[in-house]
Each structure stands twice: as C-alpha cells, then as structure tokens.
C-alpha cells in the first residue's frame, strides 16, 4: 500500500514539474482576425481552405479560430491587433496604413508586369524574400504570406473608356496615393469616397467610374450600376497574413516549418488566386443572374503603352520618396520587379 501511495505521489509531482506534459496532446488555439464576413466569397475560397491546410500539415497541433466581420478587431486595427497579441494571426489590408511599408508598396504602382493576383502575389513574395530592407518593414510581426489583388479594372457608368480622350475629365473614385496620382496624370478627376458608399455614388453619378478588383465587383454588386469594364494598367493592392511574433516563437520548429510549407510563396499564390482571380467568374455569373452582361474591353497595345508612359511619374515619385526615407535600394527593387 505504501509503495502504491509513493508511486502516486511521484506521478503527481512529475506532472506539476512539467505542466505541459499533462496536456501535450492539446492543440494550440490561434485566433485569426479578419474584416471579411463568413459568407464572403474570399472566406470560402481562400481563408477557410488555408486554415484547413494549416491544421492538416501540423497534424492537429494547431487549430485556428476565425473571428469574422471585425468581431475581434476592426480592419484598420488588424495590424496593431496582431502586434499586441489581441489576435494571434490577422488578414491585414496594408493600404490602411500609408507609409508603414514604403518599399513593399512597390506592388501598388501602375503598369507593373503582372496581369492577375496569383502572378502579383508570387512577384511580391519573391521581392520580399530577396530584400532584407523589405523584411525590416515587417519586423514587428511574423509574415506568413503576402498576396495582392489583380491590377484594378476600370469600371464606368455611361461612358466607355478605350483611350486617353475618353478618360479625360471624368470623375474616378480612387483609393491610395499611387492610384490618385495616376488618375490625375491621365487627365481624370480623382474623388475620394469610402468603398461602402461607392455603389450609390455610381448610381447617382457622383462619380463616373472607379478602379476596382473583380472581388469587389462581385461582393458589392457593382455590375448592377455600371455599363463598361476596361482592362487598364492600374496598380493593385496588397495584403499580409501576419502572426504575432511572440506566439510564433513559442511554436516548435517542426510546427513552424509545417505552417510555412503552406504559406510563403505557395501560400501567397494560393491566396491571390483564390481570393481575387476566381472572383471574376463569380461576378460574371451573378451579373448574368441579375440580367446584366459583362464584356471587358482592352486597350490597344499602343494605347496601353501610352497610359504606362504617362504613369511613369508615379514610379519616379515612389523612388524619390524612398530615397528621402533612406531606402537607397528602391531603384534596384524596381529593376528586379520589372525583370520578373
């Protein structure tokens, strides 16, 4: 009896010495914040499939709890939420924080050589991996992946845009410095309106058009109020899926490697394609259900080159601004992007 009691005490003592041992099989629960709703196409096509990939490759060691629709943190607060530990992981729309990542913002410049979000996301991750100065801009978090939208489409109501003469003088809703500068350089009038107000603004004629990705055309049902769609050399937006650094550092290396196996470059491409590129077909399908037909015009090669040439001041402004901030390799990063 004494031996049994002694054995029991030794087991209890050992358990208290190693508190994790009693719960070694319990998964790590990570809180993921996103401003998008649960029924959003991007949640179904990109977020949840990626979460399933993470949980699978970590063999159940990691479980991700998704907080949709800004229930954990507002979209504009997602970066600080991840930094501070309010959230463990966050989908961060980097356009909310001008000046935070001036070098990485290169991907938002107009006329870069990619035509869809999968290509743009791969380009961005390769640049990020190549240049420590870009990595330094994210030093406060652990970047799991970076993804872009496709270059924005120009959608217009009433007025079809096929050349520079067509865009001159019309009111274009813009977001971000680079697109605003480009629209001015093309002779149009930039107008700043919050995204939730753009449907009504297009309907009432407060603006004549806007630059927008397919994901928003579908999500905001812009196909109900616009008449024309034109592929133009606008820029894109980019987003990070980032993790709290302290939480990342507490994970064992095997788990870290497993997470990065479905993140990094391949994860960036996956999010770009599934979040944005696949939304085009959905928008066309939903437009047809609403009795609207989407036909996309393209600029002629000569016209496209002219638009890009007129947008070069945006590139020069980006290079000069970065040089003023001490980022002396901005031109080198630009050259690398163009070669890609």
Topology:
Elements lengths: L1 H16 L10 E6 L7 H17 L4 E6 L10 H7 L4 E5 L23 H14 L1 H5 L4 E8 L4 E4 L7 H4 L3 E3 L3 H9 L3 E3 L6 H7 L4 E4 L1 H6 L8 E4 L6 E7 H6 L2 H9 L2 H14 L1 H11 L6 E3 L2 H24 L5 H10 L1
Parallel strand pairs: 1-2, 1-3, 6-7, 6-8, 9-11
Antiparallel strand pairs: 3-10, 4-10, 5-8, 5-9
Helix pairs in contact: 2-12, 4-12, 7-14
Please describe what this structure looks like:
The structure is a single chain. This protein starts with a helix and ends with a helix. It contains 15 helices and eleven strands. 47% of the residues lie in helices and 16% in strands. The chain is α/β, with parallel strands linked by helices and 340 residues long. It has helices spanning 2-17, 41-57, 78-84, 117-130, 132-136, 164-167, 177-185, 198-204, 214-219, 245-250, 253-261, 264-277, 279-289, 301-324, 330-339; strands at 28-33, 62-67, 89-93, 141-148, 153-156, 171-173, 189-191, 209-212, 228-231, 238-244, 296-298. It folds into two domains: 18-149 and 238-279, D-Maltodextrin-Binding Protein, domain 2, CATH 3.40.190; 153-235 and 291-339, 3-Layer(aba) Sandwich (D-Maltodextrin-Binding Protein, domain 2), CATH 3.40.190. Helix 2 (41-57) links the parallel strand 1 and strand 2. Helix 2 packs antiparallel against helix 12. Strands 7-6-8-5-9-11 form a six-stranded mixed sheet. The longest helix is centred in the last third of the chain and has 24 residues, at 301-324.
Task: Give me some keywords for this one.
340 residues; alpha/beta; D-Maltodextrin-Binding Protein, domain 2; 2 domains; six-stranded mixed sheet; five-stranded mixed sheet; 15 helices; 11 strands
